[in-house]
Amino acid sequence: MQGDAQPGPYRGIHARHGEVMARDILQLDRVCKYYQMGDSRVDALREVSLTVHENDYMAVFGPSGSGKSTLLHMMGLLDVPSCGRVLVDGKDVSRLQENELARIRGKKIGFIFQVFNLVPSLTALENVSLPMMIYGVPKYEREKRAEDLLSSLDMGNRVGHLPGELSGGQRQRVAIARSLANNPEVILADEPTGNLDSKTGEEVVEIFNQLHREGKTLIVVTHDPDIARNTDEIVRIRDGQVVEHEVSKEHAVRLGEKTELAGGVKLKVNGELGIRMKKKVK
Ligand code: ADP
Ligand code: MG
Question: Whole-model pTM?
């Protein structure tokens, strides 16, 4: 079975010649982001290096204004870095034009935001269909897929509703369905349970866990301990820098020699299974 993907907990990891390897999907290489505000400069990100592998499940923590959303925007190719490189599947995309970025983004990455960002004048079905339009998916197929996605999220009986006619939890389900429209490998979520009550939030967490089991790669900016408990990795950022990167022991074992913390710090894999391993980066 050399070179074949293994089932079960090793899904997404390829074993070759006895070593365990996980494919790199996204890499930030000393990425900075500055915003010039008149005479002063805001350093939203300062030389962040971070690798995301296939099927990683990562939580990003940090106080308000620490650069979490900026980090997600860099990973999601929604904005270009001021310095450093962003690599997708090993290829540097930091100097591509917006239309090229949009194509990669649309296929590869799905976004979920705290404020849902649905188009208020479109129905749930139309909102979910929208991302498929730039790829020229025929209307019938778009609507079929949108309906299937909404049904899979228990929203099958709300396809014709406008966002204003839905509860917060239902809107977030529509947003999740929309993020899945083009079957992306990576889901980036920015405080997805921030506007939801705790029970609805738990349902969204369960959807994320399920997506992870299905093989998706998830990076979630959150303050929600329920999400963090389920993730393999926790990245803490402060003042635009990664200050701590925590990796579960199981995850470190799966990654094997690919285990590398933000900033290129190597994590030593030892100790008991089930113990989260932490390393101060800065
Ligand atoms: P977080 O998501 O952790 O709250 P952000 O990434 O949104 O933080 O912001 C990081 C810093 O960058 C903040 O100081 C914020 O004010 C600033 N910032 C973010 N976006 C912009 C922008 N478009 N223009 C100017 N400053 C920005
Ligand atoms: Mg934010």
Answer: 0.85
